[in-house]
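Record type: monomer structure entry
Structure origin: computed from sequence
Chain ID: A
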Amino acid sequence: MTIRRTTLITAATVIALSAVAACNDGDASTPAAAGGSTAQSATATASVTASGTPSVPTPTPTATPTPTATPTPTATPTPAGAPVDASGAFDPAVALANADRTPYAATLKMKTTATANGQGTVMTSTGRTNINTPGHEGRNEAKMTISGSDEPVLWMESVNTGNGIFMRDKTKPGSTWSPSGSSEDATDDDGAGLYAKALVEAGPAARKGMEQKNGVPAFHLGARLTAAQIKAIDPDEHRHMTEKGVAAKDYDVWIDRAGRILAVSQSMKVPKDGTTVTSVITVEYSDFGPRETFTVPTAAAS
């Protein structure tokens, strides 16, 4: 089984919808039962590798310091990515076409809300994940609550080492880590990047222009995409939408000049048990850095 980042989002939506249905039925036990599938998809995870403090050599004192010539300034290399104009704007098509595929790490924050008839659920997922790597190693914590309660009905933590995935249920005090699949289950085919490219090709109306996102200059792309349009971008998502009776969804993505995804937002109306559930999902990536190492968790690592 292959779980892509877009599939992770789909899984979060499915569980949120189930939770809303449970709210409307007055039964709060359904989301907890769905915890297994959410946990399996919540594999964008993290651990920060400590770095040593460099030693600073003690200078040898001299009675009379000898003046040295002022060094010739060296130009700062231009960051890789699309060229910018005088205003700092760039062409998103150029940025995506020249995106660097070098592995890197990022902080991931995802929020899924599903509401219907005044009831709803909120699912949050935060962690650290490697991007552009085969297994998307990382560490993640996912939590879901139902309207009117702060008690999580789902609270899972996962670690993907690149060789395996390990999980524990934090709703159960003292729960231990256990294997939960191989890292092959967390592979990703850059779903958000595929949507970004499709939006670039959708024409001028989808180009919303430059904005600041997480303090970074970003180009905002967005449009309402029909199920038929999504079929060419993401066949699995098209199938899920068709099964749920969803005709279209609003999709927005923000990219930086290096073609990296900074944020994603998608919303749609889902028919469910005679009502309509409004589902909104947002994902943010920040604090980019070198690829990180994530080790097998132990009790001491709690």
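Annotation 1: The helical segments are 5-25, 30-33, 35-41, 92-97, 191-200, 227-233, 235-244.
Annotation 2: DSSP finds seven helices and eleven strands in the chain.
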